[in-house]
Design goal:
With 202 residues, the protein is an alpha/beta fold. The chain has a single domain, classed as Aldolase class I (TIM Barrel, Alpha-Beta Barrel), CATH 3.20.20. It has eight helices and eight strands, in the order E-H-E-H-E-H-E-H-E-H-E-H-E-H-E-H. The chain has an eight-stranded parallel β-barrel, surrounded by five helices.
Length: 202
Amino acid sequence: MFSSAKLPFARGVWAIGSDLGNAEEAKVWTQDLANAACLTLRRPPSPDSLAFATWRELFAHPNRLAVHARLDLALLHPSAGVIAGVRSLPVPALRRLLPGPRALGVSVHDSEQAIAAEGEGADYLLFGPVWETPEKAGIMPARGVQALASLVRSTKLPVVAIGGIEHENQVHQAQEAGAQAVAVLRAAKDPQRFAALCQAWS
């Protein structure tokens, strides 16, 4: 659960940087994301020296940072958090190793996983895919807005809706379901689309 030592939750539209190939790609990607509530780095490049250089390009961003799975990279920034998923250390291990005020997010797909993550020390949850998305095609079906609302009711933690969010009405639906943020990948590569989503957040 959140404590006074934790940073306030980053409400708004989050931008996911996935498979950024190098520092220059990261620099270009962040140029039009000043309104992002949080930047997250997913699947950083190899080797680790390249991952470090890529991650470091995000440090100049004025708002929150989080990295998927990579505790080692998160520790290089004084307040960056970690998002746990299938590629990461177990949530209890990350909780023990992650110093405050850094926040620990956990990717979940149903209320049972949400309750477990809350008990293991998560500070917030990412739930999805709420809508169909190419990232999960053939792997995981869309959960839907009703499932999002149900999960929000099952936990005291802030919930980030993720998956297939490209239009303003989806932002509104996620908020109405109780999500305290939405995270986008494809829309984060389109400055006009991303700006429109940020404008839709209320």
